[in-house]
Each structure stands twice: as C-alpha cells, then as structure tokens.
Amino acid sequence: MKMNTTIKVVILTLTMLAFTLGTYAQDSLAKGEVYHSFDSHDEQNWQISDGWKNGDSFFGCNWSENRVNFNQGKMELSLRTNYSYPAPYNYECGEYATSSFYGYGLYEVSMKPANVSGVISSFFTYTGPSFNAPWDEIDIEFLGNDTTKVQFNYYTNGVGGNEIIYDLGFNAANSFNTYAFDWQKDYISWYVNGKLVATATNNIPSNPSKIMMNMWNTYGIDEWAGAYQGEDANASYDWARYTPNNGEVPPSVAPDFQLKACDFTDSSGITSWDCGVGSFNPGNWIKFDSVDLSTGYNAFAVSYASPVSGSFDIRIGNPNGQTIGTVNYGPTGDWSTNQWGGTPSLDITTRGRQDIFIVSTSGSANLREFWFKNE
Fold first, then answer.
1. Which entry of 76, 92, 141, 369 is annotated as an active-site residue?
2. Which family does it belong to (predicted)?
3. Which of 51, 119, 261, 360 has the fewest C-beta atoms under 10 angstroms from its C-beta?
4. Cβ–Cβ contacts within 10 Å for residue 130, how many?
C-alpha cells in the first residue's frame, strides 16, 4: 500500500466475487518476465526508499535503506525506533520497488508478514502523481493484529473502497506462502498458494505501475490495523515475479526525471560553478551521455537566469544532430534571478538511451537544471 486513506474494511459483494475455486499455472521464466530471488540488492532494476516519509499522517515511520537487508536468499524489511525523528514518527522502516513500470499480467510473491499490531506488510503495484500519472494501485496487505487473514484492495484514479478480507485458514506469519494477483483489462483476480480466492471486475486500474513491497507502522488508525506499541517488526520475502500476458498492455508512461546542468559529461565553450553552467552563448553546448528517454517525453523544463532573451536546442547524437525540441526563453532580470522556462513540444517519438546535447542558438544564460516531462 502506498497511500491508502481508507480505513474501513468492507466486503463488496457486487463487484467482488470472492472464494471462487480455481488455480493458475506457474510457468518457467518467459520473455519480458521479471524475477527477483532476493539474494542481493539489484541496483539496476530495483530501488530502496531512503530519507523520506509518506505525507499522510497515518504513516508512522520514515523510509530508511538500513531497514532493507538481504541475507541467505531472503529480503527482510524491518521496523525500528529512531529517536532522531520527532515523535510520534520516531521510527524507520523499509520499502523496495522496481525502477520500471509494468502493465497487465501475473504478479506473485513468496513472503512472511510481520505479526505485530499496527504494522502493515505488503506487496502491491502503484503509480501516482509523483510519477506524472493518476493514482492506480493493486494491493496485497497483511494487518499485523491478525495475520490469519489477508486484505486485498485496489485504487483507480484515486478511488478506492474496494477492500476484501480473506480468511487464510493459517497464520501467514509462521511460514512462507505464495500470494498473487492477475491484473487484466477487465478484472483483477487474487490467489493464495495458487488458489483463486477473489475477483474484482469494476473500474479496473489501467496505468503501468511499479512493483513494490513495504512494511510500516500505522498512527491514529487503530480501528483498522490495531494499535502500534513501538515493537520491533520484521517481514521476510523469498522471491517476487511478474509475468506479462500476451494480451493488451496499457501504454507505458515514463516518469519525469531531472538532469543537473553541472552533471554534463562533455562541453564546449561554457563555464561551470556551484552546479550551474554559464557562458552559454551561441554555438556553446553541454552533453549528457546515454540519457534514458524510456518510452519518450513530450515536454522539457529548464531553470535558468538571464538579462536577455535567447534560445537553445535539445539535440541527440552530436551538437549538430537531430533537434527534438527548442526552448525560447525571456529575460529574468539579471544573472542570478532564476525562473522556469521550457517547451511543451518535445518529440515524444525519440526513445531509449540517447546522448543529449543542449546547444545555445541565441542570447546568453546561466543554466541550473533540466526536467524531461510528460504533460
């Protein structure tokens, strides 16, 4: 769960078809499949949340890389007290997520949740405004006050209220079991150890999402997850897998990302100081090697300062290469007053890894940072 503001647990009989018998087949690794055995941190494809806290008041802890550990083929997310944070949020906890976004298919995890009251252990998909997308989410959650049950949920464009509680018939905290959901265009089906236990068919999410796992303590919502009393907690994950289907997959939306002007890999004619670039005069340029444009961007923003008007091109390959966008900027008043400019007309068909050149064509400016965006 990423940002769940719903705390009332309800069973929706009209849109959820629960406890339906069925199984799914676990196939061998297929093309496009994602599999993590959790032997170690996969820095290329996965990210550890660190140094921040979800904004909602009911999230009781701060994400820390210290609370994501790999040992003997397992990933352990932990929750510990950290008095460097002000009460009542003086705890640190763990979150692990893919770098990329994924669409329709089967999502599976083998895990053992924490059985501490007020603590949530989860496996889910999520995207939202921080990724320039609507809030879509599909959840498998364990409430630490009763780990003989599992909660399923989903959000579509921020609309939730789709919770269902399934009685497992065993204590999930005592052993590793496999939990999964099959996300398709018209339905979501949830599974426990290969058995179909719930299906939703109403207002299904459609936006590509990150695969995420986290464990966190609640604050002020005791009626949902029980009261958290400050205990240490641990949740273990044995493996996770995503298997795409052969049907329609929602279009991928690349997340916004930043380039600092001073992080250029090559340049001509410019000066650089305090993570800024100056002497950006006609013909001068800066280069960024192998920038991942993913599935493409349609807009570009720049933080700059200049007493005059001017322009620059965003080009690929070399300083005289294909122009994928042009920024025309106006005066900010002086060389130290920064403001934002940019273009809403970047060529979104330019994708994948590209060498990016920012080439001055007129005027003169100091540059601070750039953002590739989808708007």
1. 141
2. Belongs to the glycosyl hydrolase 16 family.
3. 51
4. 12
